[in-house]
Amino acid sequence: MIRSVLVGAVVSILLLMTPVTHAQTTTLVQGTQLKLNLLGGLTTSMARAGDPFVAEVAEPVFYNSMLVLPMGAKIHGVVGTVIRPEHFAIFRGQAQMNLTFKSIEIDGRVFPAQMSIIAVSNGGAEGTKPRKDLKTDEGAVVKEKRDVKGAVMDVAIGTSGGSVAGVIFSHVLRGTVLGLIGGTVYVVQKKGKDVELPAQTQFLVRTDGNVSLPMVTPNGTATNGAQ
């Protein structure tokens, strides 16, 4: 009996002396806005569905003076549907590319995360100057912005076809072509531009849900959590 009591006492002491290790985490809350810099270029002329891409956090994120997400943390994503432009404005859909953010990488550790694109900027030397040639739909699809002005001119050909054609030809500018479709003459601007996102393009994104992350030190490395 005495031996059993002594063994139990020794075990209790050892348990008290053993350091307790637990994960220290923090939360990147839903709706947090992040600025990201694209590390490699993307374009609808080359990208394929399933292609991975990587961006990095351009500005650190703090909550109550605590560093939650360090500058330079990697954001991993994948290209979804890619639609390429056709040759002429009236026949084509706009070029577009679906971008899905999948995870955040901190100090070699990867954590699932979903984000929506709010805005696309030039980045690099031009800073946060918005890209006026692009727009986003539903937070993920980056599209060529259609330039309505001067894109299409159509005139029905009737009995005065000759005079109408003369008026049309007088308005044809360099970079346009003349087409005849279903009895209607179209002056069609040769647009059909690809969506181009060069390296250092900046995204303003918003987190779609809470993301549990490890606590990080001021230099951006994850803590071990040992107490």
Can you tell me about this structure?
- The chain is mainly beta and 227 residues long.
- It folds into two domains: 23-146 and 193-218, Lipocalin; 148-190, no CATH class.
- It is built from two helices and 18 strands.
- The chain has helices at 2-17, 161-171; strands spanning 25-28, 33-38, 42-43, 52-57, 61-63, 66-69, 74-83, 96-106, 109-112, 115-121, 134-137, 141-144, 152-156, 176-181, 184-189, 196-197, 202-207, 211-214.
- The strands form five sheets. Strands 2, 4, 7, 8, 9, 10, 11, 12 and 17 form a nine-stranded antiparallel β-sheet that branches. Strands 13-15-14 form a three-stranded antiparallel β-sheet, covered by helices on one side.
- Residues 13-22, 152-162, 172-178 and 186-190 have low confidence and may be disordered.
